[in-house]
Specification:
The chain is α/β, with parallel strands linked by helices. It has one domain: Purple Acid Phosphatase, chain A, domain 2, CATH 3.60.21. The protein has eight helices and twelve strands. The strands form two sheets. The chain has a six-stranded mixed β-sheet with strand order 3-2-1-11-12-9. Strands 4-5-6-10-7-8 form a six-stranded mixed β-sheet, covered by helices on one side.
């Protein structure tokens, strides 16, 4: 089975369409790690597109929860909170219902697990090995996919107890990099953010997982950033959210 792994789309339709154009006819099933909305200008269109993909497994993100009213966004910064309230006003009733029905992670799909943040808590950020270790201790499978940080890469815990950081650096003109999974190590894999990269690469990020070959492919594709920024400006979303798309920060 070849899975297309999407995370942190954040209502960025141009980025999502660029990913799906690249991925066309290249996968069997879709996995979504949450934060379909928030920050971006096209919440309904992006939810509609994701729903049409019929993900075999999907969890909610913190922006999904806040945008549909499950959470109050009290721990968000000002710009993110403003975007949440704007998103909440835009969402159609059926899409509000869809977001409210998304499960919290972790959930199991096939022989791996998916979460938005971590195995300890769906909203926990994992940036450092010590945080990853605490999460991987709870893993019920050798492979877990997570999002939330918007950093493409991840962590592995060897059977010797040694932790390693999986760093991905795809330079200009480089679209993908493959990671062969070991048979005994535990992995926490982040595909990166489709619509709000924060790792210094402005291109949309995603991943494939080939279960038969035990290979993860990290991918980046360019998209029309200016078109997304123009729509955000027209919607009155915060300038800092608009500008950062240009830099992937």
């Amino acid at each position: 089975m070849r899975y297309l792994i999407l995370s942190d789309i954040h209502a960025n339709l141009e980025a999502l369409e660029a990913v799906l154009a690249q991925a066309q006819d290249s996968y069997d099933q879709v996995i979504c790690l949450g934060d379909v909305v928030g920050y971006g200008p096209d919440p309904n269109a992006v939810i509609d597109r994701v729903r049409a993909l019929q993900p075999v497994a999907m969890v909610r993100g913190n922006h999904d929860k806040a945008s549909c009213g499950i959470a109050d966004a009290g721990d968000f910064n000002l710009e993110a909170r403003q975007a949440v309230f704007w998103t909440r006003e835009q969402l159609r009733a059926d899409n509000l219902t869809f977001l409210r029905g998304l499960p919290a992670g972790p959930i199991t799909c096939d022989h791996f697990q998916i979460v938005h943040g971590s195995l300890r808590h769906e909203d926990e950020y994992i940036f450092f090995p010590a945080e990853a270790l605490e999460s991987l201790k709870l893993a019920e499978a050798l492979l877990t996919f997570c999002g939330h940080t918007h950093f493409q890469g991840g962590f592995l815990l060897k059977n010797t107890g040694r932790m390693e950081v999986l760093r991905v650096s795809l330079g200009l003109g480089v679209a993908s990099a493959a990671l062969q999974l070991g048979s005994t190590a535990r992995y926490l894999i982040n595909p990166g953010s489709v619509g709000q990269p924060r790792d210094g690469d402005a291109r949309a990020a995603f991943a494939y997982y080939e279960s038969a070959k035990q290979v993860v492919e990290y991918w980046r594709v360019p998209y029309d950033i200016a078109a997304t920024q123009e729509k955000m400006l027209a919607a009155g979303l915060a300038q800092v959210l608009i500008t950062r798309l240009s830099f992937g920060r």
